[in-house]
Specification:
alpha/beta
Length: 355
Amino acid sequence: MSANDAPRAQQPSATYDSAFLKACRREPVPHTPVWFMRQAGRSLPEYRKVREGIPMLESCMRPELVTEITLQPVRRHDVDAAIYFSDIVVPLKAIGVDLDIKPGVGPVVERPIRTRADLAQLRDLTPEDVSYVTEAIGLLTRELGATPLIGFAGAPFTLASYLVEGGPSRTYENAKAMMYGDPELWADLLDRLADITTAFLKVQIEAGASAVQLFDSWAGALAPVDYRRSVLPASAKVFDAVAGYGVPRIHFGVGTGELLSLMGEAGADVVGVDWRVPLDEAVRRVGPGKALQGNLDPTVLFAPTEAVEAKTREVLESASDLEGHIFNLGHGVMPSTDPDALTRLVEYVHTHSAR
């Protein structure tokens, strides 16, 4: 079942007619909807103030803090959707994987997964493991009203890359060595991660999320043949498992221009596109029946307003023939971005795209 096929009763009634969800369903919209990846956070002074002295993972487990951080960019920028504040490793931490997010480094895993015995670290995720997520989304949906909330999770490949490497990597040599050298172990690892990711998304949807996004941040490191054989089945399993809820499913990765058709094939309703591929070319690669999301280069926001508007017009014009388009950056908001530049960008997109 796609988002288009879902009965209206399955959608949260307050958000069903929002511009964001209409665009996901490839329906006519009053204006192009806008939200930003990493909008709930690092560029906002109010975010830094409420997070002061609180480690990242701890901040993801405090429902009232999660609610405040998620709402901050909605208040400030008037975006068309909120993105749930969390981190892709939260479900791994919740099932007992010994990891931490080191400032300036990223997720660091104490015991990387390198053998079949190491898979024992990955038990099933239950709703009780992430009860704080259910509580936070309940608080958020009451505050957001008609503004949709996007739930999210890390895709199996990206989670596997952290687990096998033990932390961030530029080359993914350990992960790829397992993928090429022990494909059965690799497939079992990704299959188990697909189940954990599915459970995490289901918790968010059942608590009230109006859409979900699967972040395969590092999938761009793969050749198409390896993605199809060794990654796509696990991502497809996740999308298929949540299809019955009828909420739009978004798929995003960085540097994935050569993978766009495969990412669409995995089962999402919306395919995110980074800034490297124009949207009119991206739609040709993805194929019919999908909305697209993207794709302003995040660094454009450091240029003067006139330049930002010029590049924004280019994105909107390249998307003019799309059935559904959600404006976003081609990756996350950079920490040193001027928040006022984001506010101006939202206003410009809304005004320039008004139907």
